[in-house]
Design goal:
This protein is an alpha/beta fold and 291 residues long. Strands 1, 2, 3, 4, 5, 6, 7, 8, 9 and 10 form a 10-stranded mixed sheet that branches. Helix 2 crosses helix 3 and helix 7 runs parallel beside helix 8. The two termini are 24 Å apart.
């Protein structure tokens, strides 16, 4: 790929010769393929969600729990045919869906792989993303993605710059969310509560940043119908070694901080979505990246 502009960085790197901001090579690099039981229940039903973890990332979150693949780029390079084969292999294993985790910087290759399998896949495709997306790239995914699962990490540009190196994060993420909603709409569940179509926003509550979480939920409730909008509020945060430079987030989230955000979400009328158990904030829930 020459002149990469797949994400908001638009760094223009010739990936046939080198790696851009995300660190991604020309071909797809995969860190893990397998059934995952620890997503939201509406995603990990049956034998589990068929996850494909991609290496590299266009954010530099200091608290990233998957830092060995997002920054360390652990994984193995594969061609499009192999990627397509992994998708079909997950279906054969009984996966409830194909869950593409941090896929943005491989969007063009993923489209090629989905073109190969689209007539035989028959299960939902999930775009599981940090939310830092280019609207132009998302438009290419129209008709390929059934469920968008974006993070909305920050409202404040100060925080997004400080902790993730992206001052324009909310500007980009909110525009991306509009495009996702235009494609797939509000979350749609089958009779057993399985997510089959639509958008569900994830938000990881960070220590000391309660008010930023409130700002995000306030925005979403004003922009969309809160009673129909699916939100997953997560409390799985634990500090990584890189957080030592940021004392205010170099600790676990307290129960009080999380409950404040939950109460605000209920007060704003959010009725669809998921809350996370506090016991999920443990390193052993981070998958082994052993592809």
């Amino acid at each position: 790929m020459t002149g990469c502009t797949l994400c908001p960085r638009s760094c223009g790197t010739d990936r046939s010769k080198g790696q851009g901001f995300c660190g991604a090579p020309r071909d797809v690099r995969i860190a893990r393929v397998g059934l995952h039981e620890w997503e939201e229940p509406c995603i990990s039903y049956g034998k589990g969600s068929g996850t494909i973890f991609f290496s590299g990332c266009n954010l530099k979150c200091v608290f990233c729990q998957n830092h060995e693949i997002s920054r360390g780029l652990k994984g193995r390079d594969v061609d499009v045919q192999t990627l397509a084969g992994e998708m079909l292999g997950l279906k054969d294993m009984g996966a409830s869906n194909i869950n593409l985790v941090t896929p943005t910087h491989y969007a063009d290759r993923i489209v090629e792989a989905l073109d190969i399998v689209k007539d035989s896949l028959g299960i939902p495709v999930i775009w599981n993303t940090s939310g830092y997306e280019s609207v132009e790239t998302l438009r290419r995914m129209r008709g390929y993605v059934d469920v968008y699962l974006p993070d909305i990490k920050y409202f404040s540009p100060e925080y997004s710059k400080k902790y993730s190196g992206a001052e324009d994060y909310f500007e980009r993420a909110s525009a991306a969310l509009e495009e996702m909603m235009s494609q797939c709409g509000y979350a749609s569940f089958d009779g057993e509560g399985h997510l089959k179509k639509g958008v569900m926003v994830r938000h990881l509550v960070l220590p000391s940043l309660y008010r930023d979480s409130v700002e995000i939920l306030g925005y979403l409730s004003e922009k969309y119908d809160a009673s129909r909008f699916a939100v997953s509020l997560m409390c799985q945060y634990f500090p990584t070694p890189a957080c030592a430079a940021f004392p205010e987030i170099n600790r676990r989230l307290t129960t009080l901080e999380y409950e404040k955000v939950v109460r605000y979400a209920r007060d704003k009328g959010f009725a669809v979505g998921f809350l996370q158990e506090r016991t999920s904030a443990r390193e052993e829930y981070v998958p082994k990246f052993d592809y």
